[in-house]
## 1
Amino acid sequence: MAANDILKYLNLFVDGRGYAGKIEEYNPPDLTVSTEEFRAGGMDAPIDIDMGLEKLTCSFVLPSYDADVLALFGVKSGAAVQLTARGSLESRDGTTKAVQHKMQGKIISLARGTWGSGNKPSLTVTVSLTYYSEIVGQRTINEIDVINMVRIIDGVDQLAEHRANIGL
């Protein structure tokens, strides 16, 4: 059926504070496998070898000069900012389901936009992530824990054997 699971509503929680009605944009992390080409004798073409994931980052835009978010910039080593993005999906038949991104990381960039009289302020925040999970309805689609070497995709931990092989 056409028009299934259209994102209609969004809320963001930053370190436990909700930003419903205060968030303009949320850009989830892109999931990209880092690859290296490999071609050995007897192969007609190269293949890509999975070398892990690219760095995970997300960003969001607030239409305000939010001191609580500004104060989270560059949290000391070992500490992290907790983020949860929640959305509501709706299909053409009227059914809805929740989508949730749970994240943990460090704010690495604060872009305050251009200041000027009569201009709406904006604050663009970029976060380098060490943890990311995506849940649609009751189904966990992705769970990535960079520090603990976990990459679960649709219920399968793709790194479990590697962790066991190196004694983790």
## 2
Amino acid sequence: MAAKLALFDCDGTLVDSQANICMAMEHAFESASLAPPPRSDIRRIVGLSVFEAVSHLLPDADEAKRRQLGEGYKQAFFDLRGQGLVEEPLFDGMKEMLIELHSDGWLLGVATGKSDRGLNKCLDHHNIIDKFVTLQTADRHPSKPHPSMIFEAMEDAGCDAENTIMIGDTTYDIEMGRAAGCKTVAVAWGYHTVGEMQSVGANAVAETMAELKVILGEEV
């Protein structure tokens, strides 16, 4: 049986990090003497690389202002972490499911808009980093929905698109998976609606962790 790769987004799929992201973005805007966007708008850009996210939130800004905001966001996140204010809890049942998938022979990976440092700290904190064979971040790839992260993840895992499933909570994840030619699963507990993810071609929808287990079980 060919190996199968389950590739997870991080923010909004593995962990609930919206509060941290919103606080850091608000601090970045305030540091640049700008009114922060509503949190509903900030949640919409979770999953994009930081500079792409800033471009979505402030489309009329010039390159210098976008770079200032992007660097401000990264500094704010670093400061929040240093103050012990960053909380990125795993969604209920996620750790148990990852351990079960790993035990069942699945290869696991992450494709995220986080930085290498941020992802490693998150996975280390939850003691699950050893379950993943490939970790792809915005530090080394174009922003989602470009499929670069998936292509490198498949190469690391030795899997082709037919045996790879991208699991995420935003249209960016689903569009990235479709661009790479792999199957896609939309999870309902993140930051975009199920309808939005279905509209861009999600192959399946998991409303709960139990449903995600069933969907992946059917792929074995």
## 3
Amino acid sequence: MSFVPTPKPTSTSRRWWPLMFGYPVLAMAGVLTHRQGVSLAACALLLTVVMASSLSTRRAAPWAAWLGMLLVMAWLGSRGMAGLLLECVPIAINILLACLFGRSLRKGSSPLIARFIEAIEGPERLDMPGVATYARHLTWFWTLLTAAQALVLTVLLLCAEPGGLLRSLGVASPWPVSGEFAQSYAHVGGYVLIACAFLLENVFRRLHLRHIRHPRLHELVLGVAARWPKLVRGEDPASP
């Protein structure tokens, strides 16, 4: 009897993650064209990529959750609320990241950045002078940055003129913000900020910890992408 092995979640995730770059393209297209279908496609693509690892296990529960959320998205879209759903996605992403980084800073836990260093460069790297302290400080940095960004995005969602949630409810915005700027920052600018922070931190780290050798940027990016799903779940990245 032949046996077809179940795909490993990690390999499935690697195959699907490049599709994440399609999300900002579809999201911005939905904003510019005001087409509900495009906005829904952006949200559906993001949901599928995020859940790819769970879906690859072929268990009923993840597939039921995925189909249920797609139906909720379709219901919102049928009532003209796909745009609002799209606006909430960047806020949810930043809140999730802030929680992931912040939770790892609890007493008795290993900071998330320290886990990445250990997984990519080996546990001995954390024993080098200044590395463990830097890992904790960097985890704090990402916690505060993503939390601040979630707050900024929430203010933009509420106060955009026109298109803001307050305006749609008939409430005057206390801090009027251009609707075009709010949408551009939410779907493009916020991700550019994260990318710039990542690049600048890479430069700063090489100067601050110049006494040790650092992995090349592409090695670091690939290492983080390959190990991210297991590390955020607290699993051993070397396990199958």
